Amino acid sequence: MAIDNNPQLVNPQLVALDCVASAHGHPESPLSISGLTVSYGEKPVLFSVDFVTPKDAMLAIIGPNGAGKSTLIKASLGIVPRISGDVTVFGEPYADVRHRIAYVPQRASVDWDFPATVLDVVIMGLYREIGFLRFAGRKHRDKAMECLARVGLESFAHRQIGQLSGGQQQRVFLARALAQDADLYIMDEPFAGVDAATERAIISVLKEVNAAGNTVMCVHHDLATVPEYFTHVLMVNVRKIADGPVATAFTHENLQTAYGGRLQMGQVAQFAATGS
Amino acid sequence: MSNDFVQLSLMPLAIGVLACIACALLGNFLVLRRQSMIGDAVSHVALPGIVLAVILSGTLDVGPMLVGAAGAAIVAALLIELVRKVGNVEPGAAIGVVLTTLFASGVLLLEQTDTSKVHLDVEHALYGNLESLIWLAGDSWGSLLDPQALAEIPPQLPRLAIVLVAVSAFIAIFWKELVIGTFDTAFADSIGARPQGVGFGLIVMVAVAAVAAFDAVGSIIVIAMFICPPSAARLMTDRMPAQITWSVVFATLSAVFGYILAGYGPLWIGATSSVSAAGMIATVSGIILGIVCFIGPKRHGIRGAGALSAAPAE
């Protein structure tokens, strides 16, 4: 991949960080991965991806369907096995710093007929805080209610989760992530299948979280909203295509490389407002 | 109630209730994980293992039976993987092929075994021998306080009591992990709730409960109890703790009414002999599920995935 070596695309600061990278990874970076390769069966889904998430970034992970965006997240968190690659979270192995990460899977990945109320699901985010062999107390329920209020769902607390609309379900997941009180929020397609009002509600909460000094990473599909929602972008299509601030990395050429012939020229021009 | 009851019916009834509750408790998680098939598979593949253990040891002791069942479960797991990889079929089909083949081979083994030495046959495997677990020494209610009489209660009772305690403890200790891992495996993984480990523990407990219940009540009840009471309970409530409670209620009702109907039902309609208690208990659990399907307050709970997109917008 010649594009990987394109000097224009490499952030000099990150190169400097690369040099100090050791067994402990980048102590400053919320999520740093190197040489990440994942395969389902014989075909690689991700091939040798290196990426250092800038601290305090609001990052979009974009790429065509099947490019390995969700897999990148799941492999980083150890949810799917990786063939090779090192991952560090705030410079530590993931297992040691789980409490600093809030992960939100795709909404469609769970069964919403599950016998649980909205509040039950948000309390799941307090799993580590509650501790082994203990049950949620009043303190935990209060905290979960606060998180529900932040996503505007406090009046739905005692509904069964299957009775909610798709957008409301996505906000329940966001509230569960808020309950985790993390430093890094990793969301897999938080805007998939939600209505416009929910999308605005979710992005405003995520921007709040980001403004409070936390890092947010979203697998994102709608290229049109990338410049408006995010500060940084990571483009993947099996390999890493490009990464960096939206202003420098979200370009014509990179989108063409990532999406190949799948994007019309007109669309690319429309999305990449900051083309070189 | 008469002393006959204590001698002839108390123990089968108690054993039936314990077996039903132990299986129903675990079934709650199997059904929600869409793994009902695994309970089915485990109780079926246990048969050839148990038969081999009985042949080799020459006794009906639970020790060799457990070892045999565990061995069969491991062989089954390996075979399922093999069929899936080599045959390139979906996991459900691989389970189906392996469990029927192993169960059938267990039946053949049983037929070829000299059953005079030990009491084990195909009927026993399917329906158990609940009615035969009588308590000869228990000639009145007072026997419940008599240490000598208590020493002669059928060994299945304390065995199933221990299994029920173990199952309850497992669910209580790993409650949060079981619930989170069942609802959202990827999230459970990300927070370190070890969904794979807890899922494996669940299957181990399912195997233990299936094998312990197998000897007393047969595999028909085991399979029915893993599925019917939890499914009916899901239709009664939208919360997990309440669902567990309802499943215990339905399991108990099935055991008690099934046993009574099997013993006395045929007489009421003029027949001369009673019918299999295990068969009747399983039937009653199915009837309860059928009734709840029509009157359960939370019938909206079970529906196709298509309903998701049909959920009302805000």
UniProtKB/TrEMBL annotation, chain A:
GO terms for biological process: zinc ion transport. Residues 31-263 form the ABC transporter domain. Belongs to the ABC transporter superfamily. One of its GO terms (molecular function) is ATP hydrolysis activity. Pfam families: ABC_tran. It comes from Pseudochelatococcus contaminans. SUPFAM superfamilies: P-loop containing nucleoside triphosphate hydrolases (SSF52540). Keywords: ATP-binding, Ion transport, Nucleotide-binding, Transport, Zinc, Zinc transport. It comes from the Bacteria. The lineage of its organism: Bacteria, Pseudomonadati, Pseudomonadota, Alphaproteobacteria, Hyphomicrobiales. This is Manganese/zinc/iron transport system ATP-binding protein.
TrEMBL record, chain B:
It is found in: Cell membrane. GO terms for biological process: response to zinc ion; transmembrane transport. The chain crosses the membrane at residues 12-31, 38-56, 92-110, 157-175, 200-227, 248-269, 275-295. Keywords: Cell membrane, Membrane, Transmembrane, Transmembrane helix, Transport. It is a multi-pass membrane protein. InterPro entries: ABC_BtuC-like (IPR037294), ABC_TroCD (IPR001626). It holds the Pfam family ABC-3. Gene3D superfamilies: ABC transporter involved in vitamin B12 uptake, BtuC. One of its GO terms (cellular component) is ATP-binding cassette (ABC) transporter complex. Its main location: membrane. Belongs to the ABC-3 integral membrane protein family. This is Manganese/zinc/iron transport system permease protein. It comes from Pseudochelatococcus contaminans.
